[in-house]
Write a structure and sequence with these properties.
This protein is an alpha/beta fold. It is built from 16 helices and 33 strands.
Length: 556
Amino acid sequence: MPGLYMLDYGAGNVRSLVNAVNRLGYELQFVKDPSDILKADKLIFPGVGAFGHAMEALNKKGYAQPLKEYIASGRPFMGICVGMQSLFEGSDESNLAGLGVIPGIVKEFNKDTKAVPHMGWNAAQVLKSTPEGADDATISGQAINYSINDDSEYYFVHSFAVPYTDKVKDWVLTTTQYGDEVFVSSVQRGNVFATQFHPEKSGYAGLRVLRSFLTGTGIVDDSKVVVKEPVVPANRLTKRIIACLDVRSNDNGDLVVTKGDQYDVREKIGDGNDVRNLGKPVDLARRYFEEGADEVTFLNITSFRNCPLGDLPMLEVLKRTSETVFVPLTIGGGIRDVVDPDGTIHPAFEVAGEYFRSGADKVSIGSDAVYAVEKYLANGCKKDGTSAIETIAKAYGAQAVVVSVDPRRVYVKDPSETIHRVVKNSQKGPNGEEYCWYQCTVKGGREGRDIDVHQLVTACEALGAGEILLNCMDRDGTNSGYELELINDVKAAVSIPVIASSGAGCVEHFDEVFEKTNVEAALAAGIFHRREVPIQNVKDHLRKCNVNCRAVDAEL
């Protein structure tokens, strides 16, 4: 399709969308100049992050007016995430006006009743059909529902949404329930189609949506469409199962997936002391996608200090992974200021941008988050806008910033012995202590700092982080279950989503952590790598326990 264009204003991960379109057998051309927009026969506008940042970029690059002219011309348009939000009149997130194609204002979710951002896999209820009641019918060569299926789940990641009201009723293709709110999850009218969810990150269910736009005419005769009222469904937001790959170079210089035992990744038995090798990162990531992982996280535990930013090995890993893995990808490790061998300085914001452009959807910040919080606390809990958390969140949105916490227990006989937040722990200390505080560490757990987890996570949320990846050094590699006391304490302290990590050893541990902590996601590594606990077994067990989880789409 020579006239298929994508409008990239410079925000986030568009590589995954390009790879998804390529996977479906099509090639995209990039809009490089405002005049290119009006050359398109079909136009896709993906957006990531903040509404204001997107509209500012569109206006600055001269794209806004040609974009409105293109839509008014009647040619097919598809927007994704902020690309959908930009069609409305404005957003509470910014003072800048939207394109004004659709009436309505984008609103922030209520943080008092649920975790925000809305992050994960949720259902989309189709509201448009033919008079005969078929929502998958084709009119003038285009499926009304663009292959969105009531029975599938799609990947959402956003803090702002358009509430469903009668004002936007004629535009609404699907609605989605998140907690106590019903919002517009896709729109369709004439030549306009847009989704709040990310089809390129929604597995094969999402690829089918993209395929419908690419193969169809992209235009629906609205006079032949019947609109129905949404029915408030049962909660369909699923619990996420995340596969984590610790990646580092072995003694031969090859990148391998490894797994530590309380953060020690070297073999303890046999003739050698080599780095434990569990496979190649790209191959394992593809396997996890096919087995049903809801997300894949790469934790780069090799520094690559003498490597120029553009040559970082993990960039290539991400690029290759995103060609065949169509679920969200997170990269952690090395998200900090980087100095090239020639002395060129790259701030953390620029480093994150390289990872996003290489295929990452989120970046995970570890040690630098601790240092940023120490500075924040020393400054009287005042933000200065310079930390990696703040700069990345400002441009790419809070949902793009994950803070990875590496704490360890410090036991005390009595809470009065420390100024830090103390938790009563089921695992007693070496001298029978019942209480402990969780000390944050840096440098891969090698150095403890005088800051506890409660201080860290609350400060990181204030700085703009969108998710917490909560590890526990004492549980790492033990297969003894998650650190429930720690997880509950963090869940009560923040309103952003939390991922439980460290300690999973059997399917029952996943049910236990979801039931006893209400955490949004659970992560595991070694048991998935070695197939000791297959991902499908975890999901089968969760369904038996009435825990919502995404079904595995085996084929396109």
